[in-house]
Write a structure and sequence with these properties.
The complex is a heterodimer of chains A (341) and B (443). Chain A is mainly alpha-helical. Chain A has a single domain, classed as Formate dehydrogenase/DMSO reductase fold (Up-down Bundle). In chain A, 76% of the residues lie in helices and 4% in strands. In chain A, strands 1-2 form a two-stranded antiparallel sheet. Chain A has a two-stranded antiparallel ribbon with strand order 3-4. The chains are: A mainly alpha (341), B mainly alpha (443). The interface between A and B is large, with 66 and 70 residues.
């Protein structure tokens, strides 16, 4: 494999990891807000916040890893990407900051809890939608050059149905993945009220998310015909992805011996595989372009310090493994944490 | 205003905002370690309480620090794409390493914050060590890129403006890396020490507090004074080396810092005043004969280059002399305060009178002003270059027209967050005063 292909594969893997973690993170924030009213007979909010409190920082780091990897693996892409993405990404940073700080402040200022929680919950809901809306920009048709300088046509983007389908896709994915995960997390904590709440939401969000995903491809702009063709050529992988969706979704209905419905762990794993397959298949359909038709993967890449960087990645994640294991044990497995009031 | 100025203003204010939180984020974990260790040695529960309360404050600060750090990290690519194009080719390594340092800090901070009571003591201290290590490593690695911008190394420019002969490690260990990194780390330690001293002194100035509470704050003040003295001395010794590096590698910046126009042997040091272009000297300054030459290279006959060696369009703005003086001046005042405080305690063995406590109260904010002045000096003093003698700021910046709107948006955000953090800290610690925690511990 060429070095640039290795680099784009790493980058795409980071995107996959962040899209999963980000969905959990922002989704949990949203569910935490929705069920924060203590009169509702469910612990859903408590469970969501139990996951969110220790995990958000790590999720945030993965966003930074992704951005740094783009710039360091593909420095020749920065000029084009920065020019066209300045406003959407800056708005994303603005929302992310409001969301992060208000979410943390909430735990330290009881009197303003509701205000802080609603602000962070709503900004967290919008964020993935905004981030996903970057995807259609790279497909072609929205970027033009004026005097050699790239410009994003906001008017065309804002009036194109594909933008809104991408946003719907971002929202439904975020909520579906987080609902299924939190259902499993609630089960680990043996909190059945929260379990049933999240299962209920997973049940309707599943079909909605898959329907929106398929429809989104139908709204791609004419200029993006190239990727539609590639997607059709990759039908096998997308088909497999749907198979895993069906497995995961069915797992929500399977009955345990004690009469409770839902094999949560099987559902989570299948749905992560579902998105993994879809994201890699989409990524491979996107090749060879980073931004169609102006920038290919090979154009953006530099090999100047590529191999030292690979070693850094290996060492970095290697060092962190014990940390991740400890984290997993303390926050995802430890009954003392999961059950504490 | 033109786009370049707007881009600089937006990025500069983002960095100026972030550095407040980042500085505390680097220094505070070290203070927490000291409290944890003192608790272990002295078996005094006050130190455990100190560690716990500082951790709460740290968690609030860290949230803003992480968010603003994310802004700065992403925004530099958005606003200075041509700069990042070169960075990506030459000095990508520290950026990559920094993420892992950041990740270590994040993982262990969660562990220390939310699982401290479920961990054995040893593992708890390991966790906070990892947090401090991650924070310090982040600072060192990001400073590496900053140092490289001042003293670029590890590549050659082709005639058409491309980059060739990249030597990753030569770039990494560029001439000013070590001194600059130490300067950032020491000054962060020092600043946090003085902030803690400020808070403790402020509490001690209150009349009606219980003896237990008074003792608690005295212990915090003692840690802060000792740590403050050691780190402020370290900062100044290393600051001296940093200035000598300037003499060696960035003589233009040193000339601007000192307001020296003509190349001179036996150059005097001008303290205070402002550099006047018409008079070609620093006006209203206190002059110490020969001192600048001696400071630059340890000899009185050292030739120090003056600004007139270069065409005026390559000069940084002359007001950097003031920024430099503010930084050095405050640093020196803080050393005196810390020395005096330690002398008072060790030799005179007396209680601090209110006027000394008032001095300590001023110390924290002063230290933070010095940090801001130092960063402004280092970045503005490099102008008109983003990468010294390689890439001009005007060429590095974006040409997008939307920067003005973003500037307003982000300034609003920063101002709001500055007030919000102060308010949340005040609100939280008012509802959970030391006296309440001490009672809880006693019962």
């Amino acid at each position: 494999m060429e070095a640039s292909s290795v680099a784009i594969t790493i980058l795409w893997s980071l995107l996959f990891v962040y899209s999963m973690l980000g969905s959990l993170d922002f989704g949990a924030g949203f569910w935490g807000m929705v069920y924060s009213n203590e009169n509702k007979n469910t612990n859903a909010s408590v469970i969501a916040n139990k996951f969110l409190s220790p995990a958000w920082e790590i999720t945030n780091v993965f966003l930074v890893i992704f951005v740094v990897s783009v710039v360091t693996f593909f420095p020749f892409a920065t000029t084009l990407l920065s020019s066209i993405l300045l406003v959407p990404v800056a708005l994303g940073l603005f929302l992310l900051t409001v969301r992060t700080t208000f979410m943390v402040f909430e735990h330290y200022a009881q009197r303003f809890r509701t205000l802080l929680r609603i602000t962070s919950g709503v900004t967290g809901l919008i964020l993935p939608a905004l981030l996903v809306s970057i995807l259609p920009i790279t497909l072609g048709g929205f970027v033009d050059f004026e005097n050699d300088y790239p410009r994003l046509h906001y008017g065309e983007l804002m009036t194109h149905p594909t933008l809104y389908m991408h946003i719907a896709f971002g929202l439904s994915t975020e909520l579906f993945i987080s609902a299924v995960f939190l259902m499993d997390y609630a089960k680990e904590a043996e909190d059945w009220s929260a379990y049933h709440t999240f299962r209920k939401h997973a049940l309707w969000l599943g079909p909605v998310s898959i329907l929106v995903a398929v429809l989104t491809i139908g709204t791609f702009p004419v200029e993006a015909d190239w990727i539609v063709q590639n997607i059709e050529a990759n039908w096998l992988w997308f088909g497999l992805s749907i198979v895993f969706f069906l497995i995961g979704y069915s797992a929500l209905f399977l009955k345990h011996r004690d009469g409770k419905r839902g094999f949560a762990r099987l559902a989570v794993v299948s749905i992560i595989i579902q998105y993994g397959l879809a994201i890699y298949a989409y990524g491979s359909a996107h090749l060879p372009y980073l931004v169609y038709p102006d920038l290919t993967v090979a154009d953006g890449f530099t090999s100047a310090s590529f191999y030292p960087m690979l070693i850094i990645y290996a060492i970095g994640f290697g060092i962190l493994i014990p940390g991740f294991i400890l984290f997993w044990k303390l926050f995802l497995k430890d009954r003392r944490y999961l059950k504490q009031e | 205003m033109d786009v370049v100025v707007m881009a600089r203003a937006l990025f500069g204010s983002s960095l100026g905002f972030h550095i407040i939180y980042a500085t505390i984020g680097v220094g505070l974990p070290v203070m927490i370690i000291i409290a944890e260790i003192l608790h272990l040695i002295k078996k005094d529960s006050d130190y455990a309480l100190m560690a716990r309360r500082w951790t709460k404050g740290f968690a609030i600060i860290l949230a803003v620090s992480i968010a603003s750090g994310t802004i700065v990290g992403v925004m530099i690519s958005l606003l200075f794409p041509n700069f990042m194009e070169i960075v990506g080719q030459v000095i990508a390594l520290p950026f990559q390493m920094e993420i892992f340092a950041f990740l270590i800090e994040a993982v262990f901070m969660s562990i220390y914050l939310y699982a401290a009571d479920r961990l054995p003591t040893k593992l708890r201290i390991v966790s906070i060590f990892a947090v401090a290590l991650g924070a310090i490593a982040s600072a060192v690695l990001i400073t590496d890129v900053h140092a490289w911008m001042n003293t670029p190394a590890g590549f050659r420019l082709t005639p058409d403006g491309g980059i060739t002969d990249v030597d990753t490690w030569a770039a990494f260990f560029n001439p000013s890396f070590v001194t600059s990194a130490l300067h950032v780390v020491f000054s962060a330690f020092m600043t946090v020490a003085f902030i803690i001293a400020s808070i403790a002194a402020l509490r001690l100035l209150k009349r009606n507090i219980s003896t237990e509470e008074r003792n608690y704050h005295k212990k915090a003040l003692t840690i802060a004074i000792y740590f403050g003295l050691i780190t402020s001395l370290a900062t100044s010794i290393n600051g001296h080396e940093t200035a000598q590096k300037l003499h060696e590698y960035n003589p233009r910046k040193l000339a601007a810092a000192e307001g020296l126009f003509e190349t001179t042997r036996y150059a005097p040091l001008s303290i205070g005043g402002y550099a006047s272009l018409e008079d070609q000297r620093v006006k209203y300054a206190i002059e110490i004969p020969y001192a600048l030459s001696f400071l630059a290279a340890d000899r009185f006959d050292t030739e120090v280059k003056g600004l007139n060696e270069w065409p005026q369009e390559l000069w940084p703005p002359l007001y950097v002399h003031i920024l430099f003086n503010v930084m050095v001046g405050i640093g020196s005042v803080l050393i005196v305060i810390a020395m005096f405080a330690v002398f008072w305690k060790l030799v005179l063995k007396k209680e601090y009178p209110p006027w000394m406590l008032a001095l300590f109260v001023a110390g924290g904010p002063l230290a933070m002003i010095a940090i801001e002045a130092g960063w402004c000096f280092s970045c503005i003093g490099r102008q008109p270059w983003t990468i010294t003698d390689v890439l001009r700021t005007g060429e590095a910046a974006t040409k997008s027209g939307s920067v003005g709107f973003l500037f307003v948006l982000f300034i609003t955000l920063y101002v709001t967050l500055l007030f919000a953090t102060a308010f949340i800290l005040k609100f939280y610690f008012k509802r959970n005063p030391v006296s309440k925690d001490l009672e809880k511990g006693a019962s």
